[in-house]
Structure to design on (186 residues):
């Protein structure tokens, strides 16, 4: 495993640069393998109310996952000021229900119904990287750091296997995840 810088900011920059180097065809293959792994995972199969994300900056693309399971209740977030607000999105109308948000991330329209956050079974969480202790490295905006401590549901970090590393520097506010899922392992 390569040596990584020690601060979160330096680690984030190095890993994002590494992720940008993934050729598009390989990124699509890894994303599909990751969707297949999630689809075969017992916790996902039993979950009905799921919070997910749309791919940004070559994050894993989970589009084929929700397209295969349109009968589950899918929630996607939009960034409102410094908070994540979760809306339910009908997958059959996914294209018309989503729009480009403030950071260029595909977000649900704000007139869609809110998700019932007290009844979430599974949260699929984006990350730059995750470590063996279940800690995630995000983009540094703190949206998930503020939201995760009060969330309910099984928390799973979704990354490519190359970004599952030994250790990430963590702070007192960092919430360890319940699982990390890559295209190769859960």
């Amino acid at each position: 495993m390569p040596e990584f810088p020690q601060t979160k900011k330096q680690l984030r920059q190095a890993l994002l640069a590494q992720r940008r180097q993934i050729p598009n065809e390989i990124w699509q293959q890894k994303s599909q393998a990751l969707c297949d792994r999630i689809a075969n995972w017992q916790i996902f199969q039993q979950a009905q109310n799921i919070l997910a994300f749309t791919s940004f900056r070559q994050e894993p693309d989970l589009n084929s996952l929700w397209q295969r399971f349109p009968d589950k209740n899918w929630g996607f977030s939009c960034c409102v000021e410094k908070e994540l607000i979760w809306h339910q999105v009908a997958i059959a109308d996914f294209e018309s229900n989503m729009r480009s948000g403030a950071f260029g991330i595909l977000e649900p329209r704000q007139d869609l119904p809110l998700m019932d956050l007290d009844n979430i079974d599974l949260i699929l969480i984006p990350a730059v990287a995750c470590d063996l202790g279940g800690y995630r490295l995000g983009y540094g905006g703190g949206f998930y750091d503020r939201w995760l401590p009060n969330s309910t549901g099984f928390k799973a970090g979704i990354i490519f296997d190359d970004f599952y590393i030994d250790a990430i520097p963590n702070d007192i506010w960092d919430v360890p995840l319940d699982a990390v899922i890559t295209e190769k392992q859960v």
